[in-house]
């Protein structure tokens, strides 16, 4: 009896043993066979006859296999054709690379100039981008950086607001209790300890009191200890890795004790990794905030006593503006009772952690701050450098266009397609750019230490090996290749072969306009950079030469960290130090010019006799301070030991205070009463304004009074004759008087200079990169001069045969540049003026922008152009006229 399934299985067997057939092919054939059998059975045929007829109609196994192999080999042929086309294209690309290498080797001077220009431009651009990346990376290493905000304070008295980065002690804990969106809050309070370990003493100024929640907000990896308990108990401390090495060397510091200020033992409970250089605060020692509570218990009404740095952690994707909108009412509820009697208000706001370094302009910063304006300037310089390098490439490509034009014409005449010529020129540009990029990486690596010394910050070398920056470098290489090779690739190859072979393309209006535009652009950048550099250095010189209103030369300042023992014996120590023959005078004070001042609010008598609340900066001084610093009395008198009451109820203010608080003259302020923290008295004198802060800020109201319990600085005016021996003698005398405190000294002028360190670095970097940009621009001008000389070789030869002198020919070739320089000068002056004026606005005291730097920059650009072009023009004018006439 016939079995259909067995018959189909026998039919399948040859196909299953043939590798030419896939399983899905066999299944498809079987489905087709079953359908045919079913149709024939339905038509009336027996099942066996229907199977045979269906198999016949489908064809034999050999026929099906042949058909399949036909399809299979057809696919294979197509694959081979694709492989052949790929091989052909690869061979063409290989040929293009070979032609590019030959052209570069044949034109060694062109290749060197082009690669050198691109190398310098790319290297400088890379270094500037690394610097910008470092500046923008501040505090972003914290895992929760986008959710951390600093609480800042604005105190407004009589319509005069003062903004500071500090806040009151209760602010952080109260915000945590009041607002559910504040997930965590922490505080830092700057401290200055005398640390003793064994027989060694250190004055630790890189220290803070810190809440134990610090580790919940900031990313501070613990090397030793438990972050949850490290700063919880009082009189416990955590060291940084460098601090642990400083105090304990190779010993395990955990569990050991440091003595602070001769009396307080701190138990070390942990060690954390050193913070990266791109952190807005840094420390060697953290002491638990509970210790400060024991030493100086806080009160609920301490809100106006700002001095803490408070940070809050908000939920992910939470809009901080919603919390900031609720802070005015929150601050008013807690400060109204304290502030209203003084006609003052206290407001709170939030500042993103990632904005602190570059964008914060508040008083009382916890560490150094940068300038986003300077970053914009450097970014513009980097872009200009790269653009000039690309323009340089295009100019040199233009200079060689007459030679390459014949090549283009011949290639197009023999059938070369426009696309293949584009690929050829882009391949050359890519090869040259790749070599320049490799050279730029080597140059950046070699010059990075020099740049680090200029900037004072380490460059992130590791970033260059990360996938992101590497991909960015590859993308930059591709973009520069396309931009730099765009002229020969997309312009020269568009001309008709007959025009190219005749050379008429060189005289087209498009080509002339392009070349003039490139020259004007290069002169524009050169003039702007020269003028900008001159004005930057003029401003820096102006800051250095500015009269500050006090003595700053040869002033040696010893910081004794508010040491109570020194404060008690300050008169004795002064007399002993003043006895040294090289010491002219000595004073002790709580503040010195250049150090941040505490802002205080006090009651001051107005002209109408009422007590008004005012905000003033405060200097705690001794009787000799004004004489020591050469401050000038304009009304009244100075502090004097002839008046014992001066040490308790006398105040001296500056002229800025007189103007700010409504007194018509300095004499009118004399005798006005004041009240502050339980002390009452009157103004006994008015001094001339002096710049006790950076020249970035105007002189603000200042008060001087005597308060020995807040003294921290010993200032000695010394003779400059023999400082090599004077300083060791003074240190020895200090050790005899204060044996357990280090002799930490600086010179006042050095302290003041630190305030302008960022500007000094900016000036050096700006000048260096401007010089490199001008150098690269000169290479571009040389390329354009070469182009002009090549295009006018026949004219030069005819003129020379007719008797033209070399000087007249040089003038002929150079005069067009004078017009281009003038156009660039007219464009550069107003735009540079606007940019420099914007930069100068960050200084309260700034030099006037005069016309001399712009005129000098224009003349310098003219001289640079004439020297660059003149050399090539002289070479062309001095050449043999026979060769010139045989040109082409």
Short summary:
The protein is of the alpha+beta class and 888 residues long.
For the biggest sheet, the summary is: 6 strands, mixed, barrel
Helix content: 40-55%
**Backbone structural class:** alpha+beta
How many β-strand stretches? 23
Overall mean pLDDT stands at: 80
**Count of helical stretches:** 31
Q: Please give the alpha-carbon distance between the first and last residues.
A: 98 Å
Percent range for β-strand residues: 15-25%
Computed over alpha carbons, the radius of gyration is: 40 Å
Question: What report would you give on this structure?
Answer:
The protein has 888 residues and is α+β, with helices and mostly antiparallel strands. Among the domains are: 4-59, no CATH class; 166-359, no CATH class; 555-754, no CATH class. Helix 5 (108-136) packs antiparallel against helix 27 (757-791), helix 12 (372-399) runs parallel beside helix 27 and helix 14 crosses helix 15.
What's the topology here?
Blueprint: H1 4-16, H2 23-42, H3 47-58, H4 61-106, H5 108-136, E1 148-157, E2 160-164, E3 167-168, H6 171-178, E4 184-197, E5 200-210, H7 214-217, E6 222-224, E7 236-240, H8 241-248, E8 257-260, E9 264-272, E10 285-288, H9 289-295, E11 306-313, H10 320-339, E12 344-352, H11 356-359, H12 372-399, H13 401-413, H14 418-455, H15 467-484, H16 486-490, H17 497-502, H18 509-545, E13 555-559, H19 564-568, H20 570-578, E14 583-589, E15 599-605, E16 611-621, H21 625-629, E17 633-636, H22 646-649, E18 650-654, H23 655-660, H24 666-669, E19 673-676, E20 679-687, E21 702-706, E22 713-718, H25 723-737, E23 745-747, H26 748-754, H27 757-791, H28 793-801, H29 806-840, H30 852-877, H31 881-885
Parallel strand pairs: 5-10, 7-9, 16-21, 18-20
Antiparallel strand pairs: 1-2, 1-11, 1-12, 3-11, 4-5, 4-8, 4-11, 6-9, 7-10, 8-9, 13-22, 13-23, 14-22, 15-16, 15-19, 17-20, 18-21, 19-20
């Amino acid at each position: 009896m016939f079995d259909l399934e067995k018959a189909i299985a026998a039919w399948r067997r040859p196909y299953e043993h043939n590798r030419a057939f896939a399983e899905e092919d066999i299944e498809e054939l079987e489905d087709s066979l079953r359908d045919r059998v079913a149709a024939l059975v339905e038509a009336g045929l027996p099942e066996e006859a229907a199977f045979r007829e269906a198999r016949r109609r489908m064809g034999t196994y050999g026929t099906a296999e042949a058909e399949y192999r036909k399809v299979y080999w057809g696919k294979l042929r197509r694959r081979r054709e694709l492989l052949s086309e790929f091989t052909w294209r690869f061979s063409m690309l290989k040929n293009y690379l070979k032609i590019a290498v030959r052209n570069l080797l044949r034109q060694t001077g062109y290749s060197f100039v082009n690669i050198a220009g691109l190398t310098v431009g790319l290297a400088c651009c890379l270094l500037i981008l690394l610097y910008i990346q470092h500046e923008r990376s501040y505090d972003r290493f914290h895992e929760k950086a986008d959710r951390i905000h600093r609480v800042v304070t604005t105190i407004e008295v009589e319509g005069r607001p003062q903004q500071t980065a500090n806040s009151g002690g209760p602010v952080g804990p109260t915000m945590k209790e009041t607002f559910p969106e504040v997930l965590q809050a922490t505080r830092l309070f700057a401290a200055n300890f005398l640390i003793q370990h064994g027989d060694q003493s250190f004055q630790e100024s890189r220290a803070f009191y810190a809440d134990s929640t610090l580790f919940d907000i900031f990313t501070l990896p613990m090397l030793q200890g438990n972050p949850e308990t490290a700063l919880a108990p009082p009189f416990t401390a955590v060291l940084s890795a460098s601090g642990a090495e400083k105090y304990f060397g190779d010993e395990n510091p955990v569990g050991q004790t440091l003595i602070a200020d001769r009396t307080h033992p701190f138990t070390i409970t942990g060690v954390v990794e050193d913070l990266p250089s791109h952190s807005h605060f840094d420390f060697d020692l953290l002491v638990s905030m509970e210790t400060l509570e024991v030493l100086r218990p806080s009160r609920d009404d301490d809100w106006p006593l700002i001095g803490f740095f408070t940070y809050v952690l908000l939920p992910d994707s939470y809009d901080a503006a919603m919390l900031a909108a609720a802070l005015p009412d929150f601050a008013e509820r807690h400060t109204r009772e304290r502030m209203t009697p003084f006609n003052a208000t206290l407001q709170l706001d939030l500042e993103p952690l990632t904005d602190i370094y570059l964008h914060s302009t508040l008083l009382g910063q916890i560490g150094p701050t940068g300038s986003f304006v300077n970053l914009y300037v450097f970014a513009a310089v980097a872009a200009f450098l790269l653009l000039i390098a690309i323009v340089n490439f295009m100019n040199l490509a233009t200079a060689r266009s007459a030679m390459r034009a014949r090549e283009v014409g011949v290639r197009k005449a023999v059938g070369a397609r426009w696309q293949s010529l584009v690929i050829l020129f882009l391949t050359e540009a890519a090869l040259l750019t790749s070599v320049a990029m490799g050279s730029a990486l080597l140059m950046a690596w070699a010059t990075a230490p020099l740049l680090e010394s200029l900037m004072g910050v380490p460059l992130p070398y590791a970033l260059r090996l990360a996938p992101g920056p590497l991909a960015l470098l590859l993308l930059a290489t591709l973009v520069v290749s396309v931009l730099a090779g765009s002229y020969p690739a997309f312009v020269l190859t568009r001309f008709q072969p007959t025009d190219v072979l005749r050379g008429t393309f060189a005289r087209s209006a498009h080509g002339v306009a392009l070349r003039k535009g490139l020259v004007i652009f290069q002169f524009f950048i050169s003039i702007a950079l020269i003028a900008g550099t001159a004005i930057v250095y003029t401003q820096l010189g102006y800051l250095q030469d500015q009269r500050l209103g006090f003595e700053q030369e040869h002033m040696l300042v010893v910081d004794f960290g508010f040491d109570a023992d020194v404060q008690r014996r300050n008169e004795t120590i002064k007399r002993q130090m003043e006895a040294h023959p090289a010491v002219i005078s000595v004073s002790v004070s709580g503040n010195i010019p250049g150090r941040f001042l505490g802002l205080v609010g006090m009651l001051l008598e107005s002209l109408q006799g009422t007590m008004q609340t005012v905000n003033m900066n405060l200097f705690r001084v001794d009787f000799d301070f004004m004489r020591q610093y050469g401050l000038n009395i304009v009304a009244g008198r100075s502090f004097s030991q002839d008046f014992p009451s001066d040490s308790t109820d006398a105040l001296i203010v500056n002229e800025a205070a007189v103007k700010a608080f409504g007194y018509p003259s300095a004499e009118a302020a004399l005798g006005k009463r004041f009240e502050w923290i339980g002390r009452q008295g009157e103004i006994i004198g008015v001094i001339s304004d002096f710049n006790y802060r950076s020249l970035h800020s105007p002189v603000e109201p200042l008060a001087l009074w005597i308060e020995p319990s807040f003294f921290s600085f010993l200032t000695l005016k010394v003779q400059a004759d023999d400082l090599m021996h004077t300083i060791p003698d003074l240190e020895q005398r200090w050790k005899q008087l204060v044996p357990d405190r280090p002799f930490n000294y600086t010179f006042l002028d050095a302290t003041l200079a630190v305030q302008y360190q960022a500007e000094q670095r900016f000036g050096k970097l700006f000048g260096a990169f401007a010089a490199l940009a001008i150098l690269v621009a000169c290479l571009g001008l040389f390329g354009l001069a070469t182009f002009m000389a090549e295009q006018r070789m026949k004219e030069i030869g005819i003129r020379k045969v007719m008797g033209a002198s070399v000087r007249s020919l040089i003038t002929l070739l150079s005069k067009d540049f004078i017009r281009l320089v003038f156009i660039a000068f007219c464009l550069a002056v107003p735009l540079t003026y606007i940019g420099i004026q914007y930069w100068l606005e960050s200084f309260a005291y700034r030099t006037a922008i005069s016309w001399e730097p712009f005129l000098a920059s224009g003349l310098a650009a003219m001289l640079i152009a004439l020297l660059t072009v003149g050399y090539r023009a002289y070479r062309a004018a001095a050449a043999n006229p026979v060769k010139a006439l045989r040109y082409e």
